[in-house]
Amino acid sequence: MARSFDDIGKEEIRDLLGKGWLTHDGAWFLSVCMGYGVKEANRMNKAAIKAMTPFEVQRLKQIMAFDERQLTNAIEIMKFMKEGMRLILPESILSKYHLNIESQNILQWEWEKNECFAYKGMSRMGVIDGYECGVMYRIECWFETLGLKFESNVKLDNCQMHTKGYCRGQYKFNI
Fold this sequence. Notes:
Blueprint: H1 10-36, H2 38-64, H3 74-88, H4 91-94, E1 97-103, E2 106-111, H5 117-125, H6 135-145, E3 150-152, H7 160-164, E4 167-173
Antiparallel strand pairs: 1-2, 2-4, 3-4
């Protein structure tokens, strides 16, 4: 017997919706690549992320009953990031991304080797050579939207997993 909506658990629904959104995002990127080239797809992708992020962060703050005045150190920033990402990413993807605290104002992040969803998708689509990381750019846009001042030790002008064989970095917050 087929299952109804009421028979499906919230984690399965979250996974389905998250993967659907990521599939659409990848299909959109590929369509722009095919029509205008990878350079223009990267430019448009970053413009769309920058435009979307204020709405996304506002919705996350609302649903999480969160006030950005709570962001007084890297631990609080990490809590917001982890809970926010849990709401928008499927667990099957989020489980491959790790956040850790280096010090009071330094947040470390890392994708497991070859496990970043964008790296895998862009590789399958054959555009990884020219892809500029939109995943970490989105996170940086979250920080900017939250009014956080930060420095990164990673440039987002390529895909680190592709060019270096790993994807990791640090954010140092000026708080």
